[in-house]
Amino acid sequence: DVQLVESGGGSVQAGGSLRLSCAASGRTYSKWCMGWFRQISGKEREGLATIDSRGITAYADSVKGRFTISQDNAKNTLYLQMNSLKPEDSAMYYCAADPIGGAWLVRPFTYFGQGTQVTVSA
């Protein structure tokens, strides 16, 4: 199994920035895809960004140009740099991982973290 632990959430004013981290541990794979999702209570989970083992990325239109996904393979850590944050970005943010590569947004993921809360005030 793979364990994922998110960190870096918090409260920020609109226009500010946050960087989320997701530390992965456990079983390793030669190919993978990792991603970031968010969910507002009562609404469907939204895929934001994915990155695969080749470094190929994909972004949702809602965050393209503002959010950047990256990974540090040596540290087994996934990041999400979030700039120009808006109140509508407030949500619980989750990272996910899957041993099948392919950085497309609409795809299944096997492993999810517990989430980190992001709150953006106007």
What keyword list fits this structure?
single chain; four-stranded antiparallel sheet; 52% strand; 122 residues; mainly beta; 0% helix
Class by helix and strand content?
Answer: mainly beta
Could you give the order of the helices and strands?
A: EEEEEEEEEEE
Number of discrete helical segments: 0
Poorly predicted runs? none
How would you explain this protein's 3D organization?
It is a single chain. With 122 residues, the chain is mainly β. Strands 2, 4, 5, 6, 9, 10 and 11 form a seven-stranded mixed beta sheet that branches. A four-stranded antiparallel beta sheet has the order 1-3-8-7, with no helix packed on it. The mean pLDDT is 95.
Task: Furnish the topology, listing elements before pairings.
Blueprint: E1 2-7, E2 10-13, E3 18-26, E4 33-39, E5 46-52, E6 57-59, E7 67-72, E8 77-82, E9 91-98, E10 111-112, E11 116-121
Parallel strand pairs: 2-11
Antiparallel strand pairs: 1-3, 3-8, 4-5, 4-9, 5-6, 7-8, 9-10, 9-11
Briefly say what this structure is.
The chain is mainly beta and 122 residues long. The protein contains no helices and eleven strands.
